[in-house]
């Protein structure tokens, strides 16, 4: 149970290592990822960052529902802000970040991938924002970044239904850049990172900054997302949705 950082020449590989919970993020893992990102970003000679999940099944299965379940609205706001800070650290890192999506990238896991500059998926990957099925909404920037990537209509359909998007569909709608057989994913991500690392590092850094200006934060969308996320933690639907996940049953929402 950790978030690991490993150097391979100019490439930093960050692995979320909690496979027993499909790499779901509790607060400790979020804080550890933030620390590793800062370490990688400031690392001498780091030219590209690859983020992946440990094990065969998951990139990151989202925020830890069991930890989130009992949060007050105020605590939930802090949790959303921490997740948003992690995603902002990825987006704001001086080096390009590549998500190597080796399985489930759901909820906060999809949001971490969305904050990366490039997304590569294994043919087994499944992405999605299933939060509404838990009585909440995506709180780590998904309402802002998903529509930018796939367009508002597709993003709304994905978020409102909470359905999972397979690798091939993700490729077709521009949610990922490429799909590789599972065994090839990490080597291909490293290869892509090495190709970026061989370019002029200051030029790549400035290109990332310039593109960020075109698609970066506008208005108070992220702050509002965190507030709306927090408000839902005062509802019966949130308690029912998360309770149903923990008890492995279908939720019965009442709209209260
Ligand atoms: N939080 C906590 N634990 C999780 C988890 C999560 N997000 N996802 C998986 N786990 C745990 C399971 O509880 C289980 O633990 P136990 O063995 O101790 O019971 C273990 O990981 C394996 O999971 P499953 O037995 O459920 O595996 P499965 O193959 O039957 O299903 C799955 C896989 C479809 C990914 C299912 O685990 C699932 O739906 N997970 C939740 C996905 C989700 O809703 N993510 C969004 C969270 S909310 C969020 O992220 C909000 C935000 O915007 C920040």
List the helices and strands and how they pair.
Elements lengths: L1 E7 L2 E7 L9 H16 L5 E6 L4 E3 L4 H4 L4 H20 L4 E5 L2 E3 L1 H8 L2 E5 L3 E3 L13 H9 L1 H10 L2 E3 H6 L5 E3 L4 H13 L3 H15 L5 H12 L3 H11 L10
Parallel strand pairs: 2-3, 3-5, 4-6, 5-7, 6-8, 7-10
Antiparallel strand pairs: 1-2, 8-9
Helix pairs in contact: 1-3, 3-4, 3-10, 4-5, 5-6
The structure holds acetoacetyl-coenzyme A.
* Uncertain spans: none
Radius of gyration: 17 Å
Name the overall outline.
Answer: globular
Q: What small ligands are held by the chains?
A: acetoacetyl-coenzyme A
Task: Outline the structure in words.
The chain has eleven helices and ten strands. It has one domain: Alpha-Beta Complex (2-enoyl-CoA Hydratase, Chain A, domain 1), CATH 3.90.226.10. Helix 1 links the parallel strand 2 and strand 3 (48-53). By secondary structure, it is of the alpha/beta class. It is globular, with a radius of gyration of 17 Å. It has a six-stranded mixed β-sheet with strand order 1-2-3-5-7-10, with helices on both faces. Strands 4-6-8-9 form a four-stranded mixed β-sheet. The model has no long low-confidence stretch (mean pLDDT 96). The structure holds acetoacetyl-coenzyme A.
Structure summary:
The protein is of the alpha/beta class and 256 residues long. It has one domain (3-197): 2-enoyl-CoA Hydratase, Chain A, domain 1 (Alpha-Beta Complex), CATH 3.90.226.10.
What keywords describe this structure?
256 residues, 11 helices, 18% strand, binds acetoacetyl-coenzyme A, six-stranded mixed beta sheet, alpha/beta, 2-enoyl-CoA Hydratase, Chain A, domain 1, four-stranded mixed beta sheet
């Amino acid at each position: 149970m950790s978030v690991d950082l490993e150097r391979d020449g100019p490439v930093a590989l960050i692995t979320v290592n909690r496979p027993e919970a499909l790499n779901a993020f509790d607060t400790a893992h979020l804080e550890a990822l933030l620390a590793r990102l800062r370490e990688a970003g400031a690392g001498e000679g780091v030219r590209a960052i690859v983020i992946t999940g440990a094990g065969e099944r998951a990139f990151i299965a989202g925020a830890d529902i069991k930890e989130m379940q009992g949060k007050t609205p105020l605590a939930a706001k802090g949790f959303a802000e921490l997740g948003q800070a992690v995603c902002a650290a990825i987006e704001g890192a001086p080096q390009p970040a590549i998500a190597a999506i080796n399985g489930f990238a759901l909820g906060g896991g999809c949001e971490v991938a969305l904050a990366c500059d490039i997304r590569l998926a294994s043919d087994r990957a499944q992405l999605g924002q299933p939060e509404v099925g838990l009585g909440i909404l995506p709180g780590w920037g998904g309402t802002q970044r998903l529509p930018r990537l796939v367009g508002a209509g597709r993003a709304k359909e994905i978020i409102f239904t909470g359905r999972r998007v397979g690798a091939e569909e993700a490729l077709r709608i521009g949610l990922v850049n490429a799909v590789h057989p599972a065994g090839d994913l990490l080597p291909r991500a490293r290869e892509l990172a090495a190709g970026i690392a061989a370019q002029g590092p200051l030029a790549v850094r400035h290109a990332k900054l310039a593109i960020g200006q075109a698609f970066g934060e506008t208005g108070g969308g992220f702050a509002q997302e965190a507030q709306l996320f927090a408000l839902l933690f005062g509802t019966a639907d949130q308690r029912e949705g998360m309770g149903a996940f923990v008890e492995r049953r279908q939720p019965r929402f009442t709209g209260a």
